[in-house]
Design goal:
heterodimer; A: mainly alpha; de novo design (two linked rop proteins); about 75% helix; B: alpha+beta; Zincin-like; 4 strands
């Protein structure tokens, strides 16, 4: 009788521990997915802003169409990438970031453009988006790290293996971009 | 280190509360003994008044602190796009909800955070800080404030503020009883002179204890937390240089025009710029050079 009770108690406790570990894994995985969608939202937002930027800049600068075309090409490339290919998306995004920087740099030569209210507003919107991309990538990497730690450490690695939880790859940060991209003119 | 810091702050909040409860009880007992011949009655009265007052203060703390510092809330990003966006970024990486955002019209650059917990937090920035600091510097400052929010420094600060307000209310009640009840009782009683002396002594004790308690509460909020918030800011922005140059700009600017003295400890830089006290014992902030030096070493 006593042994039966002990066995039942042990089984119940084991099931509870198992369920706890499983739920923990699910919640970290959900966090990781959420933080990717943060990045995704910002990438889409930037894609929406770029045509406006190109239109605005075009009106003021006549000789710089090469730079603008490059930005548009990269933007269109972004929209073609399959949604689950995170690393490729970030690679193109990084190129887009640096060519946007060159647009901001060339606008230095056009005082009228810099003075226009529309451009100032776009600048703030775009640098906001760029910063948010950088910060949400930081967030993604830290949530991915906590998922990967859980998948590798005992005993959650057993549960992870049974339910096919997979490690998430970190998003690599290009060297020159480790600091938040700076596109402000007020230095 | 972060979790230790949060746990330590929650523990300290409890110590500060216990300390104040004892003080409030003592003040109540003194008032009760002198004017109603019953310390118990005085304690009950003090705890009830103190409790009600505290609840009101804590539930209203953000509005109270903000109006003491002449801050007005902004509710849409169009009113201050750069500030709003930076606060959004910092809240995101610190993994706390977006706080309410306030602006203080003052040309001196400064900022602070307040609230009870990360879900009910608010940050304020002066118009001067928005004009003088560039984006990276402002990110450093807001990262510092968001670290105060995430570490529950803001709760500790709010409770200490509310408790010192309770003490000063009780001290006021004591004063009033002294003028109204005290004199009458002294005449009615045979041992009037003796009681008068005790009353005087107790009143003086209460008057001395009140402000002292407020100082002790401020001291409990160790200056070390400023260093920790600086480190936390760098952890969020990954950019010590931004905060360094922000702190330099803040320390070399003129003092604020009408900063509230009791909330001076909350600001990122001392808003009053008063002369340094003897051996820095009663400073609200660590020396700016030390903070910058520590950031340089990161």
């Amino acid at each position: 009788m006593l042994t039966t009770i002990i066995v039942i108690v042990v089984i119940v406790v084991l099931i509870a521990i198992y369920a706890g570990i499983y739920n923990g894994l699910v919640s970290v995985r959900t966090h990781t997915q959420e933080s990717w969608s943060q990045i995704d939202v910002q990438l889409k937002r930037r894609n929406d802003l770029i045509p406006n930027l190109v239109e605005t800049v075009k009106g003021y600068t006549k000789y710089e169409s090469g730079t603008l075309e490059k930005v548009v090409a990269l933007r269109n490339q972004m929209t073609q990438i399959p949604a689950d290919d995170h690393q490729q998306m970030m690679d193109v995004s990084n190129q887009l970031t640096s060519s946007l920087k060159s647009i901001f740099a060339l606008s230095e030569n056009y005082p009228d453009l810099k003075a226009s209210q529309e451009y100032t507003k776009l600048m703030e919107e775009l640098s906001n988006t760029e910063n948010k991309i950088a910060y949400s990538r930081q967030l993604f990497n830290s949530t991915a790290a906590s998922l990967n730690i859980k998948i590798q450490s005992f005993p959650s690695n057993i549960v992870a293996k049974i339910h096919h939880f997979e490690q998430v790859a970190y998003l690599e940060v290009p060297e020159e971009e480790k600091a938040a991209p700076k596109v402000s003119f007020d230095d | 280190m972060l979790y230790q810091q949060i746990a330590q702050n929650k523990r300290r909040t409890i110590y500060v509360m216990i300390g104040f409860l004892l003080l409030v009880t003592a003040i109540g007992a003194a008032i009760g003994y002198v004017f109603y011949d019953s310390s118990i009655l005085g304690i009950i009265m003090a705890v009830v008044i103190g409790g009600i007052y505290m609840l009101i203060m804590i539930s209203q703390s953000t509005s109270v602190v903000m109006s003491m510092n002449h801050a007005h809330e902004i509710t849409s990003e169009d009113q201050a796009p750069e500030l709003w966006h930076i606060v959004e970024d910092m809240a995101m990486v610190a993994q706390v909800p977006m706080p309410r955002v306030y602006i203080i019209d003052d040309p001196s650059p400064n900022a602070f955070a307040t609230g009870n917990d990360p879900k009910h937090a608010a940050v304020a920035a002066t118009s001067g800080i928005l004009e003088r600091l560039n984006r990276e510097e402002l990110e450093g400052v807001m990262g510092h404030e968001m670290t105060h929010v995430r570490n529950y420094d803001i709760r500790l600060q709010t409770i200490a503020l509310a408790l010192s307000a309770v003490v000063s209310v009780l001290v006021n009640i004591g004063f009033n009883s002294f003028w109204w009840g005290g004199g009458r009782r002294g005449r009615d009683n045979e041992g009037g002179g003796y009681i008068q002396i005790i009353m005087m002594m107790l009143s003086i004790l209460v008057i001395i204890l009140g402000p002292l308690a407020a100082t002790i509460a401020q001291m409990a909020l160790s200056r070390n937390r400023e260093y920790l918030a600086d480190a936390g800011s760098v952890e969020l922005t990954r950019n010590p240089q931004g905060l360094i140059s922000a702190l330099q700009k803040i320390s070399t600017a003129q003092p604020m025009k009408k900063a509230d003295a009791s909330s001076a400890a909350m600001y990122i830089g001392d808003p009053l710029k008063k002369k340094k006290s003897f051996a820095h014992l009663f400073d609200t902030h660590p020396p700016m050079e030390d903070r910058i030096e520590r950031l340089r070493k990161m």
